[in-house]
Specification:
Strand 6, helix 4 and strand 7 form a beta-alpha-beta unit. The protein is α/β, with parallel strands linked by helices. An 8-stranded parallel β-sheet has the order 3-4-5-6-7-8-9-10, sandwiched between helices. It has a 3-stranded antiparallel β-sheet with strand order 2-1-11. It has a single domain, classed as Alpha-Beta Barrel (TIM Barrel). Helix 3 crosses helix 4. Bound molecules: zinc ion. The site of zinc ion (ZN) has 6 residues, from loops.
Length: 312
């Protein structure tokens, strides 16, 4: 089969993937998660989300990767409807998020790695039961803490084996610590090509040596909290821009990805947030001011996500 990108509307030729947001959500529910008393949600209202996605499209957006895992709001039929309504090409993830979010029915602690991997491969091959919608990437899968639990290790190994069996890339959740290196170690033990791995949420751990360690192992590094305003992100952005420029100057443009991880109602334009256009309206102009060239911006926002999403 020719190389292709698997969207929720079916396979598409990689060259049709343009400006891409590689780590987003279009609906999330976390109320059932123990101790998650502080969270509201990303609205199930389809028309609101469609308006926000159309705004992304109008400004030159092409493709959006929805990494919401099963159990916290993934809805394949809804994703396909959103794609049809808006003209945005949507790629859906698969896998399990992090231990405190694993749905009880997934029985992660009772099944073998191969059994878990077989479920992911079956989704890729046959589509999500009853929908005909196929995932195009593994993720987001991650660690809840700065270490990897036994169940999380099982999920990472299952994702690795599913990646090798299907060609899908793996996108991770790794926050406020160098835990992304633990993820890479597991993938390496399983024989995954690091170029098929995206270590996510790099902006939450702004340490140059950590970035270099991930990049020098050959993996991709993703800054995907851009535009977040939940804590100190706004104050931290100038330093983050410096770090991205430093990585570009050192020649890593081919391994960097940028996204916004919209995951909460407060981020929508309907609620005075940046919606899905923080990169287009704010962050990329800031990079240009920092003398980042159009070629590098295109690599990070078009070429790299296209390469990651292409099933060889
Ligand atoms: Zn996310």
């Amino acid at each position: 089969m020719a190389p292709r990108v698997m969207s929720v509307s079916g396979p598409i030729p990689p060259e049709r993937v343009g400006f891409t947001l590689p780590h987003e959500h279009t609906g999330i529910h976390l109320w059932h998660v123990p101790d998650r008393w502080d969270y509201w949600e990303l609205t199930p209202d389809e028309l609101t989300i469609a308006d926000e996605l159309r705004d992304f499209r109008r400004r030159g957006g092409s493709t959006l990767v929805d990494l919401t895992p099963p159990g916290v709001g993934r809805d394949p039929d809804r994703l396909r409807r959103l794609a049809t309504r808006t003209g945005v090409q949507v790629v859906m993830g698969t896998g399990w998020y992090r231990q405190s979010y694993y749905p009880a029915e997934a029985l992660i602690d009772r099944r073998s790695v191969d059994d878990l991997a077989a479920e992911l491969v079956a989704e890729f091959t046959d589509g999500v039961a009853g929908t005909g919608v196929h995932p195009g990437i593994l993720g987001e899968i991650g660690t809840d803490k700065p270490w990897m639990t036994a169940q999380e290790e099982r999920v990472h190994r299952a994702a690795a084996r599913a990646s090798k069996a299907t060609g899908m890339a793996i996108s991770t959740h790794a926050v406020m610590s160098p835990v992304g290196l633990d993820q890479l170690r597991i993938f390496d033990e399983e024989g995954v090509d690091p170029r098929r791995v995206v270590i996510g949420h790099a902006d939450s751990y702004p340490v140059l040596d950590h970035y270099l360690a991930v990049l020098d192992r050959g993996a991709n590094l993703e800054f995907d909290f851009l535009g977040h305003r939940f804590g100190t992100e706004e104050a931290a952005e100038p330093r983050l821009v410096q770090l991205v420029v430093e990585l570009l100057e050192r020649g890593y443009a081919g391994q960097l990805l940028l996204s916004q991880d919209v995951c909460h109602n407060s981020q929508l334009k309907a609620n005075e947030g940046f919606g899905y256009t923080y990169l287009q309206q704010h962050f990329l102009p800031t990079l240009r001011t920092a003398a980042v060239g159009e070629g590098e911006i295109r690599q990070m926002t078009v070429d790299n996500p296209r390469r990651v999403l292409t099933i060889p």
